[in-house]
Specification:
Number of helices: 18
Strand content: 15-25%
CATH class of the largest domain: Alpha Beta
Strand order of the largest sheet: 3-4-5-2-1-6-7-10-11
CATH superfamily of the largest domain: Glycogen Phosphorylase B
């Protein structure tokens, strides 16, 4: 069976540029696809930080000029070979020469209009790679299927390319005025209508990706079902329902190499499933010392490592946090985000310095020490397309407490004290007291001396969330699209 040729298109990719989970997916899934025989390559913008770090290793391939409204803009194409992967970069100082990855929203719309057009212009020579599949990700790439049909198909170019469009978070859609998008992207009313690119009279990049792609995926099976409802559909549930025949959910994974407590250099003591009890005890003590919290073997430590935004269920936590702390549970939160939530966390630390710590920062090493040194991982999300933190916490033997939504439902099996089955704790509704009671129940299991907790930790660490399963499902999807194309011919 031939190896599909896939170009993975993303606005952020680890290790080059990262803001959220999209970068982790774009940086790891293609590598696993290559291991499974896919000729997969990655293309992204050439941000300033990439030029500064990798400038000496970048290979210049070509340049061209793109018409963007009244301007003609330079578009450079560069490449880099690293760890068996070919990376391509779209260069333009005006659009990507800033320090931040995302800027003002209106300017981001223009930047990623340019990026999408530049990627399509770069296909074929001198890239020396014509993909059979374009794998697009989130709103920053959603217009590409429409642009492909509008600008290239009439001239006989790239008619056989199939499009896989992955929605990582439906909340962010890429919306701007009709006149602006028509100007920047040279799209006519044939595409700029409510049957095509537009939603409620204005262009919507994410909707365009749904309508014009060959297959639409989300990052977990449960999220794929949830977004068909009005509660989770972010206004696009009707569109998704109309195209549900091409919608599927493929669960994200994590890198077992990157997230490995036996090899993690950030930890005070490395451990695996056989040495977890001793190893986590050392990590737990060191973490309490680092956070300045009093340690008690009977007092569990719950942590939350997250963006401080409403999606993550912070209102639920705030509502019952005092009651959680009163149940003799220590809590620490690491992350940045909405100033309101940052201030709320600081306020709890001021009022409850003996039980709570607010680490308002981004610190990868501290995050790893928290994964290893904590007993519980709190993730009471209002919605969660996939979530990686619950997978990472289980890998480190830290038990997740989650709300049953999206990928959290697909990965966390609620513990049953009567059968001993399960790998975490969960609650169903967006209800602060369900979070409270579930956390108190978890603390009760933690304090038992009958071996229940040790068995639960072993169950969590035995879970496998590596990328091989997900990559195999994507490979099957790619081949099914190419088989359909061959059948049509």
């Amino acid at each position: 069976m031939s190896s599909p040729r896939v170009l993975f298109v993303s606005s952020e990719v680890t290790p080059f540029a990262k803001v959220g989970g999209l970068a982790d997916v774009a940086g790891t899934l293609p590598l696993e696809l290559v291991k499974q025989g896919v000729d997969c390559r990655i293309i992204m913008p050439l941000y300033r930080r990439i030029r500064q770090r990798y400038g000496q290793d970048l290979k210049f391939l070509r340049w061209s000029m793109l018409k963007m409204g009244w301007r003609s803009m330079y578009s450079g194409l560069l490449s880099l070979e690293q760890d068996g992967m070919t990376y391509y970069f779209i260069d333009n100082e005006y659009y990507f020469g800033q320090e931040a990855i995302y800027l003002d929203y209106a300017f981001d719309i223009e930047r990623f209009c340019f990026f999408q057009r530049a990627v399509l212009e770069a296909l074929g020579q001198p890239m020396d790679f014509t993909p059979e599949i374009l794998h697009l990700n989130d709103w920053q790439t959603g217009l590409m299927p429409a642009l492909l049909q509008a600008h290239y198909w009439p001239a006989g170019y790239f008619n056989d390319i199939k499009i896989v469009y992955t929605i990582h978070n439906l909340k962010y859609q890429g919306i701007h005025s009709r006149e602006r998008i028509a100007d920047l992207c040279d799209l006519s009313s044939q595409y700029l209508n409510d049957y095509g690119v537009q939603m409620d009279g204005v262009p919507n990049f994410l909707k365009a990706g749904i309508v014009y792609s060959n297959a639409v995926t989300t990052v977990s099976p449960t999220y794929a079902n949830e977004i068909l409802s009005s509660f989770y559909g972010e206004g696009l549930d009707g569109v998704l329902g109309a195209y549900r025949h091409k919608l599927s959910g493929i669960l994200n994974g994590i890198s077992n190499e990157d997230w490995n407590p036996a090899m993690d250099k950030a930890l005070a003591q490395n451990y695996d499933a056989k040495t977890v009890k001793k190893g986590k005890a050392v990590c737990r003590t060191k973490l309490h010392e680092e956070l300045g919290l009093p340690e008690d073997p009977k007092r569990p430590l719950a942590v939350m490592i997250t963006r401080l935004v409403d999606q993550k269920g912070l209102d639920l936590l705030i509502r019952v946090l005092d009651e959680i702390l009163d149940d003799d549970i220590n809590v620490a939160v690491l992350g940045t985000g909405d100033p309101f939530y940052e201030q709320e966390m600081r306020g709890f630390e001021m009022r409850r310095p003996d039980r709570f710590r607010a680490c308002i920062m981004f610190d990868d090493a501290l995050a790893r020490r928290m994964y290893a040194g904590a007993d519980f991982f709190l993730m009471p999300s209002l919605f969660e397309p996939c979530g990686l933190s619950q997978m990472i916490s289980m890998r480190y033997g830290t038990i997740p407490i989650v709300r049953e939504t999206g990928g959290l439902s697909d990965t966390v099996i609620a513990y049953n004290q009567y059968t001993g089955e399960g790998n975490g704790f969960s609650f169903a509704n967006i209800n602060a007291h369900e979070l409270l009671y579930t956390t108190k129940y978890a603390a009760d299991i933690f304090r038992r001396e009958d071996g229940s907790w040790d068995a639960l930790v072993q169950s969590a660490m035995a879970q496998s969330f590596d990328w091989s399963r997900s990559a195999a499902q994507y490979l099957e999807l790619y081949r099914s699209l190419l088989d359909e194309s061959d059948a049509d011919n």
